[in-house]
Specification:
- Mean pLDDT is about 85; it is low at about 1-10 and about 170-174.
- The protein starts with 16 loop residues before the first helix and ends in a 24-residue tail after the last helix.
- A two-stranded antiparallel ribbon has the order 1-2.
- The chain has one domain (about 15-155).
- About 35% of the residues lie in helices and about 0% in strands.
- The protein is mainly alpha-helical.
- It has helices spanning about 15-35, 50-55, 60-70, 100-105, 120-135, 145-150, and strands at about 60, 145.
- It contains six helices and two strands.
- About 30% of the residues are buried.
- Bound molecules: iron/sulfur cluster (SF4).
- The site of iron/sulfur cluster has 11 residues, from loops.
Length: about 170
């Protein structure tokens, strides 16, 4: 489903040391998730990114959302209800390098590879992701749905210090 597009840079740096640590930890977790699923592959149809049609969405912690926002403005909603980070073809992820943990660890039944998914490793990495986020944003109680986050209004300049779901003040305007 998720064909690769070129990497974006990391975007503006967050303001607090704990936030920078959470982003670094999230990138490390993403690398480990990729390693855990390195033996798996899929048809790259993009069907699993049709979030409304499938009634299934990735749930993101603030660090995951910030890595996506650092790429630039959130694309507008798609008329087909798919993830806004899909490209025009509806088959390629335009944010592949920064896609969420749930995007990296979901493969549908048509996948190829080992018969069993690395469930224990996924749970271990999820606990790391939660810990990193709760250290950076203690007020956050859990992840939020991708489409819910994408519908949030752009944060006001400077709101990143108090709103864990917002980005730092240098986020581009929509
Ligand atoms: S970010 Fe969106 S388009 Fe990219 S893999 Fe995840 S659900 Fe699919």
């Amino acid at each position: 489903m998720r064909r690769e597009t070129p990497d974006a840079d990391d975007g503006p740096e967050p303001q607090r040391t704990s936030e920078r640590a959470a982003l670094a930890e999230t990138r490390a977790i993403y690398r480990l998730a990729g390693a855990a699923y390195s033996a798996f592959s899929c048809l790259a149809s993009g069907e699993c990114c049709q979030l409304t049609a499938r009634n299934r969405e990735p749930w993101l912690w603030p660090s995951e959302w910030r890595l996506l926002l650092a790429r630039g403005p959130v694309p507008p909603p798609r008329p087909d209800g798919g993830c806004p980070f899909l490209d025009e073809s509806g088959k390629r992820c335009a944010a592949y390098a920064d896609r969420a943990f749930g995007c990296r660890t979901y493969f549908c039944a048509r996948r190829s590879g080992p018969s069993r998914e690395p469930g224990d490793e996924v749970q271990r990495l999820l606990r790391r992701l939660e810990k990193a986020n709760q250290q950076a944003w203690p007020e956050v109680t859990g992840p939020r749905r991708m489409l819910e986050l994408a519908a949030l209004p752009p944060p006001e300049p400077g709101s990143g210090a108090t709103n864990p779901w917002a980005l730092t003040e240098s986020r581009p305007k929509r």
